[in-house]
Amino acid sequence: MKTIKKYFMWILLGIGSIFGIFIWLTKLFNKKKIDKIDKQINDNNAVVNNAQGHIEAIEEQKEDVKEVIENREQVIKDLKEQKENIQPETPSTVSEAKENIVNKTKRRGRKPRK
Fold it and tell me: Which residues of 55-91 are buried (b: 16+ CB within 10 A; e: fewer)?
């Protein structure tokens, strides 16, 4: 009976140590998995922060483009109003019109016909 108790103790110690090693290895593997997942989360957060910076830059560019478009629309509107209000200056006589045409053709380098 003493030998059975002695071996029983060793068997229980062996099973207990195997169980302890199993728990220790499980914790070790779980810790590695947790570290890997934490690293992925941190990488994703870095990507999100970088993307957020790009989004803010794009929103600023969008606002700048809107301002440029509004300014151009205002310029176009002003030019249309000016176009409608044009009062052309017409020469009062035929001789003044002829002289104006001749002067313009001389400036461009054309020689009048003889």
Answer: eeeeeeeeeeeeeeeeeeeeeeeeeeeeeeeeeeeee
